[in-house]
Each structure stands twice: as C-alpha cells, then as structure tokens.
Amino acid sequence: MTGPFPETIVTSNGRIWVGVGCGIAAGALWGLVFLAPELVREFTPLQLATARYLAYGLFAIVLIAPRWRRVVRQLTPRDWWALVWLSLLGNIFYYVLLASAVQLGGIAMTSLIIGFLPVAVTLIGSRDHGATPLSRLAPSLLLGTAGILCIGWQSLHSIDAGLQPGGLIGLACAIAALASWTSFAIGNARWLVRVRHLSSHDWNLLTGVVTGGLALLLLPPAILIGAHSHDANEWLRFAAVAAGVALFASIIGNAFWNWMSRLMPLTLVGQMILFETLFALLYGFLWERRLPTTLEGVAIVLVVASVFACVTAHRVRDGKGEAVSQPGAAP
Question: Where are the domains of the chain?
Fold first, then answer.
C-alpha cells in the first residue's frame, strides 16, 4: 500500500484504538472548516468552497503525480463515477451548505445540527451485515444525543431574539449539509472496502483531483455571484485560509479519516464524527475568547463518554472472557 499510513501492519487487537486516534486527528483538522467562514466573511460561501477545492485539487495532483499512471490503471469507470458523486456530496455541496449555515446562523447552531451525524451514520450502519446491534450501541447514542442537546439548549438561550429569516435559511442549510455528509460518510466507507487494491491515501488524492475538476466548473459563478471589490490584504487572507483548509482538512484530515474507515465498522465510524463537533466548539471558544459555559462543558464530557461507550460496545469477548476487537468496516 502506498501512502502516509501503514495500513497493513495494524493488529486486530489494536485496530480500534488506532482508529480512535485517527478519528481524533481527523476531527481536530475538520473542525477548522467551521472557523474558516468566520475568518473570511467578506467572501461568499461559494467563493470559499471553490478556492478551497481548487487548492485541494492542486495539492492532490502534485502528490499523486509520481504514480498517476499506475493508480489510474486500477480504476474502473464505476470507480470514477463513485469519485464524482462522493466529491459532490462530501466536498462541493457539503461545504457550500456548511459555510452558508455558519455565516447565516453561527458556528454553534451549525455544529449542533452537524453533530447529529454520528446518530444518523450509526443508525444506518447498524443495518450492515454483522454490525453491532443497536441495543449495545444505545448507551453511546444516548450519551451523544444528550451532549448535542446540551449544545442546542445553550445555543437557543444565547439568542436574544427569535430566529430571523437569515437564521432560518442558515438552519435549512445546516440540515441539508447534514444529509449531504451523512450520504458521503456511508458511501465512502463502503466504497473503500470495494477498492482495497488502492491505499486510502490514494483514494483521498483521487477524490481531490476530481473535486478540483468540479471546482473549475464553479469558478465562473463564484466570480460573478456576490462579486465585490476587495483589497490586497483581504485577498491574501482569503488565499491563506482556503489553502490552509485544503491542506489540513482535505488532504491530511481526509487521509486520517479514510485510514480510520478501513479499521472500524461503520457503526463506530459514525461516532468518530463527534470529534469534529467537539473541536469546532473548541475553536469557536478560542475565536470568541471565552471559556465553555457549564452546559457546554457537560456536553464535551458527554461527547467523550459517548465515544468510549461506543468503543466498548465494539469489543466482544472470546471464549476465555477476554475482550477482543471486532473486525473492520463491513461492506
């Protein structure tokens, strides 16, 4: 396997904890995407998404160029179509919707809605053959939902007035982003099982190449819609944010996520998305220069407890009563 992570050397006993580490790393890097729209509010969500994914595509082309011919020979037309729709769902559509939700409704509201991703992915993943039954996942789901509700309660009480029209549109964008990324998380995890002849790193880079091509199609409307004059400093900040998110979230964060997706069943993969919500909140606290409130602190504890409860549920006992890890993601 070619890539930054040694996918073939993870033992069955350690694969879940290695996967948790990858999930934490991916969440820490993905949490940056919630902060990016606040850093460049002078630009539209479409402009930010286009710039981010153009940069993602350029990084991906440079990294995969040395082995491009060998990798491409292993792809079928069906694989290319999968890359197109995964790029649309998990990148283009998702980030335009998420950035719109952040700018219209704020980081807290958006992270709350996106925080329901673990519940959605876990419920769907529980239908896979050999998946951990929902009865064993119930404590984890309840803890995660309780944490999300704490965040939501805090968000609602922090708003002095009712939702304005812009806030309602932001809420709708956040819900649409939730649906888009849920579809991506499930589809990507299952497709990674089908293309085991490729490393997860190469699959991520191929996704970047396709996403960059799709971003080229967005360039004309991104320039024309909401076009405003910006000074040199604003353009430099915009370029730095777009390139930074592309490198850290799309290249490195996705690499961690894809490696994790091959180490874990889908029901556990879903719970790892909680770390994105957790880090989005932490970055929001830093941006607002404040400490978490009591409810937010409780929510963080519940989120962490939810993940550990889910890990415990995925450890079965052998005939001697010793805990062993279940195998990786089911097709």
Answer: 16-315
